[in-house]
Amino acid sequence: MTDPTPDRTSAPTLIGRSSSHFTRVARIFAAELGVAYAFQVVPDLRSVDAADYAGNPALRLPILRTGATTWFGALNICRELARRAPAQRRLVWPEHLTDALTANAQELAVQAMATEVALIMSQLAGTPKDDAQLAKPQKSLLNMLTWLDDNIHAAREALPQDRDLSYLEVCTFCLVTHLEFRSVLPTSGYRALTAFCDDFAQRASAQATAYRFDAP
Ligand SMILES: N[C@@H](CCC(=O)N[C@@H](CS)C(=O)NCC(=O)O)C(=O)O
Predict the structure, then answer these.
(1) For 87-151, where are the E strands, in sequence order?
(2) For this UniProt entry, which segments traverse the membrane (predicted)?
(3) DSSP E strand stretches across the chain
């Protein structure tokens, strides 16, 4: 749906779940940018009715509704929130990452989030953890976390030092804390990622968006 004259004065509605890492990415951006929004919970991730996902044909969340317009996916939503922000902030988006180190870190952070979603959805479907089909995504997730742990420090050093916020850091924080929250795997052994998360967790935006399961 397109809205030729977007109304950026009324508060948008974020459709998602408080237990979702992609939703938390959007919420952290909203908090950092000072953009108010209403929150609408998607009650059941197993629903196959697009209406439960604000019309997102991918049957995924988050979605942002702004008047007659809907935005699918965390990155689109964060960009729209930035357009609505009352003040300009120094934001680092994926397309700003033009060296292999930071660009690969961004790719792997988002891919790890997607792989984790696939593992959680298979768990919801009743697939046992030792099912042969899960061996590759499980190994892939471990490989990506090891890579991110080895490279997060250097990648952060390579980001513009005067940034207020980067999509890479928000995704990485939401990924690692979500792995613990959903008991997908313990993360304390990933020392660099843990140190980064401890640091990022000091932000008011992180503290205001702690994961929790919404009431059914
Ligand atoms: N590309 C989407 C991915 C969103 C996504 O996978 N969200 C998860 C929840 S965190 C979801 O909708 N899972 C439902 C499913 O996999 O069926 C984004 O960046 O927002």
Answers:
(1) 91-92
(2) none
(3) 13-16, 38-41, 63-66, 69-72, 91-92, 165-166
Q: Who's near 158: CB < 8 A, 6+ residues apart?
A: 99, 101, 102
Residue that the structure tokens 């209403």 belong to:
38
Q: CATH 3.40.30.10 region(s) of the chain?
A: 13-84
Protein residue with least CA distance to atom 18, ligand 1 = 73
Query: Which CATH superfamily does the domain covering 13-84 fall into?
Result: Glutaredoxin (3.40.30.10)
Judge whether 182 and 141 are in contact, CB under 8 Å.
no
CA angle 177, 161, 188 (to 5 degrees): 25
By alpha-carbon position, which residue is closest to atom 13 of ligand 1?
Answer: 60
Cis upstream peptide for 62 (omega within 30°) = yes
Q: What is the pLDDT confidence band of residue 59, given thresholds at 50, 70 and 90?
A: very high
Q: Quick one: which of 103, 83, 99 has its CA closest to 91?
A: 83
* 29 Cα to the center of ligand 1, angstroms: 17
pLDDT confidence bin for 12, thresholds 50/70/90:
very high
Q: What does pLDDT average to over the chain?
A: 95
